[in-house]
Amino acid sequence: MYKVNTAEEAVRRIPDGAVLMIGGFVGIGTPQDLVDELVRQGKKDLTLIANDTARPNVGVGKLIDAGLVSKAIVSHIGTNPVTQRQMISGAIEVELVPQGTLAERVRAGGSGLGGVLTPTGVGTDAALGKQTIEINGTPYLLETALKADFALIRARSADYSGNLRYSLTSRNFNPLMAMAADFVIAEPDEIVPVGCIEPDAVVTPHVLVDLLVAKGATL
Amino acid sequence: MNEKEIIARRVAQELKSGTLVNLGIGLPTMVASYLPVGLDVSFQSENGIIGMSALPDPGLAGGNLTDAGGTPAGALPGASAFDSAMSFALVRGGHLDVTVLGGLQVDEEGHLANWMVPGKIVPGMGGAMDLVSGAKRVIVAMTHTAKGEPKILKTCSLPLTSVRRIDLVVTELAVIEPTDEGLVLREIAPGYTVEDVVAATQAELRIPVPPRFMKVDPEELR
Predict the structure, then answer these.
(1) How close A16 gets to chain B, by Cα (Å)?
(2) Which residue, among B125, B20, B22, has the nearest Cα to B78 in the 3D structure?
(3) What is the pTM assigned to this prediction?
(4) Contact B155, B203 (CB under 8 A)
(5) Domains along chain A?
(6) Cystine design at A108: which of A113, A117, B24, B37 (Cβ 3.0–4.6 Å)?
C-alpha cells in the first residue's frame, strides 16, 4: 500500500476537537512538520496526550502558544510557562499523570487492556478519585487506559510500507502511541525502500501506520 | 566550593560499582562529575537510555539524544535505548538501584515533597513519583534551607511525591537518615556545629554523640 503524503494533506484529516497523541520528550522526538501544520491550519479545541508541553515555540509547545489545546494529559508542564499561565486562567484543562503511569496508560490503550495497576502515586494527590486495589497486601492504583483519534509519530526511518525504527531518546512515547490511536501518521526523517530496515530493527510494524509524511513531498 | 558542589560530592560517595543510577535534573545531575575514580556506575535517563554520559564535545550535540531536561547528552559504548514504558518498567520493577532527586521538603516520616507548590508553581510530577516509589534506594540532594526557611520539617506542608520513606537526605550542612525512630543526624559538614544544623532544621533530629563529619575536603569547604 502506498501511504506517503504531505504534512498538509495528512493534517487535513484531523478535525477540530480531536484527541491527539503526539510523541516527544521536551520536544525531542516530536513530529515537527505535523505540529507546524496543525498550527498553520488552526485546528482548535484539541485534546493533547503527550509526555509534556515542551517549551514555548518548541515541539507541542507551539500548539499551546497558538491556543489550540483545550485539554492536556501530560506528566510535566514545568518547562512551559505558557501552559502554566493558561492553566491558571482556565483556558486549558491540565491532567497531570506520573510519567511511568502515562506510558502504561497509553500502552494499555494500544494493547486491549482496560488499565493497569501501579504502586506509583498511592496515598498522594495522584490517587484522588481513583480506585485503590490491594493485591497480596500491597496497594495499587487502578489507572485506566488512554486512546486517541490520531497519533502523530516521529521516527528516524520508515520504509515505504510503514515499518518504523527510532533513534536514541527521540523514541520515548512514539512506539506506544503508534499502538493506541485510530489513525496513525508518522513523520520519519527518511523513507527507505522496503527491506532496508531489517526485521529485527523494526520497532513499529507497518500494519500500525496509516500514513507517512515525507519531507518536501509533492503529490 | 559552593553548597551544591558540597552536596554533589557527598552524594557521589554513596554510589557503588555495578549499579544502575538515575540522577534528577539540576543539582542531582552534578553528582556524575564527582564520582570516585574507577567507579563503574550506569546512568539511566528516564527519557529512554542506559549509559548516558555528558556531551563529550559541544560540536557533537545531536537532536536525538538529550538528558531528561532536553539538554544534549552523550552515550557511552554499551549504551542501550528504549521507549518510555520500558524506561519506567526499569524504575518500578526493582531494576533501578539508586535515584537521586532534588527536594522542596522532607519530613520526620521521611516523606518527600518535590513536585508542586499549590497556587504558585505546578510543574507536575514528571517521573518523580515513579522514581521515589520504585527505586531500591532514594537519596534526596537539596539545600538545607530555602531563603532561610527550613526544608526539613515535622510534617510536609506541600503535596507528597510518595508515601514511601526515602533513604537519605544530603544537604550542605548534614547527612540525615530517616529511620523507624525518626530522622537520625549521621554527619555534619566540617565548619558547622550540631547546633547550627538543629537551628536550621524544624524537624526533631536524633543525634548520636559524637557526630561524624562529612568526608568532603575541609580545606576546600571554607
Answers:
(1) 27
(2) B20
(3) 0.96
(4) no
(5) 4-213 (3.40.1080.10)
(6) A113
